[in-house]
Amino acid sequence: MTLTFPGHVITTSSSRYHNPSNSTTCVAKALLGYTPADGFQRRWDRLLSALPTPPKQKAYNIATHKTELVKCWEPLQFYEPGEERHIPWKCTEWTNDHALPALWNAGEIVEEIPADPSSEDWVWDEEYQRYRHWSAEKNEWVWAPGE
């Protein structure tokens, strides 16, 4: 899942990328939890695309030659120096305050692997109408045969 910011408007899209942990530019990572490998991109896309996202909030001001926070779009107005500005809705706030809680609340990210590797604990999946259990060996969900 990637978040892109064309023109300071956040959009979500699924893309396959290499493991960023293997990159020489990776400094640190924080693991958020586990997600089922089977079909998660479609479910994440559907969930995240339904969330409100930050609107375009900045534009290039030809008078100052800078990209600035917009006061009003119709007609285009920028804040004057010293004028109190509204607080912009940042993309990191969207991620932390909206996207991640939505994924956790939907059970798409869980803190622990759902079942003991030696367990046969099966969990009912409402979306797929099938039982599943976590395979630590495969590091993915194992689905009961469909009927």
Mean pLDDT: 79
Q: Give the ordered list of helices and strands.
A: EEHEEEHEEE
State the helicity in percent bands.
Answer: 10-25%
Shape estimate = elongated
Q: What Rg do the Cα atoms give?
A: 21 Å
Q: How many DSSP-defined strands?
A: 8
For the largest beta-sheet, the strand count, sense and barrel status come to:
3 strands, antiparallel
**Strand percent estimate:** 15-25%
- Ends: how far apart? 31 Å
Structural features, described:
It holds the Pfam family DUF6540. 17% of the residues lie in helices and 22% in strands. The chain has 147 residues and is α+β, with helices and mostly antiparallel strands. A 3-stranded antiparallel beta sheet has the order 3-4-5, with no helix packed on it. Strands 6-7-8 form a 3-stranded antiparallel beta sheet, with no helix packed on it. A two-stranded antiparallel sheet has the order 1-2. It is elongated. The chain has 2 domains: 107 residues, no CATH class; 29 residues, no CATH class.
